[in-house]
From TrEMBL:
One of its GO terms (molecular function) is oxidoreductase activity. The active site is at residue 167. This is NAD(P)-dependent oxidoreductase. SUPFAM superfamilies: 6-phosphogluconate dehydrogenase C-terminal domain-like (SSF48179), NAD(P)-binding Rossmann-fold domains (SSF51735). Pfam families: DUF1932. It comes from Sphingomonas ginkgonis. InterPro entries: 6-PGluconate_DH-like_C_sf (IPR008927), 6PGD_dom2 (IPR013328), HIBADH-related (IPR015815), NAD(P)-bd_dom_sf (IPR036291), Pgluconate_DH_NAD-bd_C (IPR015814). It comes from the Bacteria. The keyword Oxidoreductase applies.
Length: 287
């Protein structure tokens, strides 16, 4: 099975999962200014780069969709006519259940769609990253993923959207805590009371190591903030579809976007990160 694995989209996750794959396509290959760097990514992963989705999908039996959140549905729609009958389309993108259901409707007439949620950072875990799968073809998808080398795969439901709902709702807290910690640390630094604020938090949550948490969360936002903001917009869609309210997640998306789009280097240590962020223009209000 591993010899038939095809990637559609080959970024950070593609590189992390490269050992499972044989070939792939990324739309950055179509941009002359980005092509060389993307070819270097494929070379680093020992994955054959194809010059079109059609070439990558020709005869493919197992496809990992690893595109940006806004491209998850368009990628499924454009790939559907190119798929071999019965091919597995494993949608590993961080998008709302409704988005995945739309993608499943596009793939369904030809292939077998599987909702896959990636439940931890792909580095350094790689093929050991926890995966949740759901949908009518979840069992076949889980077996294929295991054959390809993934070691922590769990079926969580028979409906497309079950796996992604768990991922999206979990992100309310995970990405929300990142945004709150960034807001807290930046304000504490600007007020000149960072040490006291951290000491107070440590007194309330003994052993939480808030200095380390602030540092780690800021690093994730500085490096991946734009992608996390895109995911949080899908979280907002999830919550709005459920009718439970999304005000906090909307603010999280704004804060993640504000920090990520600055494209700052995540320097070593909390003090250096705060120093890099504070001279910039005030963070945009979520209101």
């Amino acid at each position: 099975m591993a010899s038939a694995v095809t990637f559609i989209g080959f970024g950070e996750a593609g590189l992390a999962f490269a050992a499972a794959g044989a070939r792939g396509y990324d739309r950055k290959l179509d941009d002359p200014s980005l092509r060389a760097a993307k070819l270097s990514d494929f070379d680093a992963g020992y994955v054959t780069a194809c010059d079109s989705a059609k070439a990558a999908l020709d005869g493919a039996r197992m496809v990992l969709s690893l595109v940006t959140a806004d491209q998850a549905l368009p990628a499924a729609r454009s790939a559907a006519p190119l798929l071999a009958a019965g091919a597995l389309w494993l949608d590993m993108n961080s998008v709302a259940p409704g988005t995945k259901q739309g993608a499943a409707a596009a793939i369904g007439p030809v292939g077998r769609y599987v909702d896959v949620a990636v439940m931890a950072p792909v580095h350094p875990l790689g093929l050991a990253v926890p995966l949740l799968v759901s949908g009518p073809h979840a069992e076949a998808g889980a077996e294929a993923l295991a054959t390809a080398g993934f070691t922590h795969v769990r079926i969580v439901g028979s409906r497309v959207g079950d796996a992604s709902a768990i991922k999206m709702i979990r992100s309310v807290l995970v990405k929300g805590m990142e945004a709150l910690s960034a807001e807290c640390a930046l304000a504490a630094e600007a007020a000149g009371v960072r040490a006291e604020v951290i000491a107070s938090l440590e007194a309330s949550w003994a052993g939480a190591d808030w200095e380390r948490r602030f540092d780690y969360n800021l690093e994730r936002m500085m490096v991946h903030g734009e992608r996390r903001a895109a995911e949080m917009r899908e979280v907002v869609r999830t919550l709005d579809d459920l009718g439970t309210g999304s005000a906090m997640s909307r603010a999280t998306a704004c804060r993640q976007q504000d920090i990520g789009e600055r494209h700052l280097v995540a320097s070593e240590g909390l003090a250096a990160k705060l120093a890099a962020l504070l001279p910039a223009a005030p963070l945009e209000s979520a209101a």
